Amino acid sequence: MSKLLDISDEFQLIRCINGVKLLRPNHRIKPHSHGFNLGCSVKQLLQLPFSVYFHNTQSELQKANDTLFEMASLNSEKDCLGKTAHSITSDEFATKLIKNDRNVLIHKNIQIIEEMGVRKDDFSIHAISIKVPLYDGQSKLIGLMGCSAILKINSIANFLTKMAEFNLLNHFSHLYYRHSIPAHIHLSLREREVLENILSGYSAKKIGALLKISSRTVEYHLENIKAKFNVYSKSELIEKCLRGIKKS
To answer: Residue 225 maps to which CATH number?
Structure first.
């Protein structure tokens, strides 16, 4: 087992162009320099109602929240720190998870991935994960930070909204459009704009302000979009769009 990374609750996560930096509280930064945006503390992130975890470059678990331990059916942090997914999931699923981690580290960019498999006790897991390269204060790549929402347990719409608040969805809508809207679905320019902002985690009020239309008009377009995608809720719409992203 590799030496565990120092990831204390008070450390700050600072959003940068292709990931996040892990900085000590006394580290002085200029909020608008070098593409950085102020983020949050490790403690704040771990309080989210989704699985949150930090891996080193070998995909060994360094820190996680209680939600992940519950999902993994583990009693405590000590049960899995320093271990890989092979200790928790089937070997086949663990291999896929580690491959996803490596893709994030190799390409050094944020990735949104649909992950499906089983734990060692055959309990099925179906999650949407956002994985982000993790750097130290000297800009050295030290691992990744991940957040995962379990479908049918977590609200995907709420998950994306929270991720947007932490500036982790800047490129998500463009990722979806790179794989194109299905040919049989025809959206107007305004509907495309509304959908793009929905996929960035924005509320109807925020979208209205960005597009200079009323929130009621945004809701009208949203209803039309849902009808065209043959879904009945915002969460279903987001899930359907997420599934349009090819797995890494």
So the answer is: 1.10.10.10
